[in-house]
Design brief:
elongated; mainly alpha; single chain; 2 domains
Length: 91
C-alpha cells in the first residue's frame, strides 16, 4: 500500500510540473530568448505580401524567419559600408 501511495504522489507531482498554461510557457520561452546573445524582441506588422515573401524565402533557404531577417539586415548594412545616409540615417 505504501508503494502505491508513493507512485500516486510521484504521478501527481509530475502532472503538476507538466501542466503549464500557454502564458507560463510563453513567459519561459521569452526569458530563455533574452539569454540568447543579447537578442532583442521585435513586434510589428508587415503587409500580407511582405509576410508571404518572408515565409517563402525562409522555407526556400531552410532557415528561420529570424535568421532570414538578420541576414538581410546585416547584408544591407555591409553593402552600405556600415553607413546609412538620408533622413534619420545611422551614420
Amino acid at each position: 500500500m505504501a508503494v502505491f501511495k508513493w507512485v500516486i504522489r510521484c504521478f501527481v507531482f509530475v502532472v503538476c510540473l507538466m501542466a503549464k498554461t500557454n502564458l507560463e510557457r510563453q513567459r519561459e520561452y521569452r526569458e530563455r530568448q533574452k539569454q540568447n546573445e543579447g537578442a532583442h524582441r521585435l513586434n510589428g506588422f508587415v503587409s500580407a505580401e511582405a509576410y508571404g515573401v518572408l515565409t517563402k524565402l525562409a522555407r526556400h533557404y531552410r532557415i528561420t524567419q529570424r535568421e532570414l531577417l538578420e541576414r538581410l539586415l546585416m547584408d544591407e548594412w555591409k553593402r552600405e559600408g556600415g553607413k546609412c545616409g538620408g533622413r534619420g540615417g545611422l551614420s
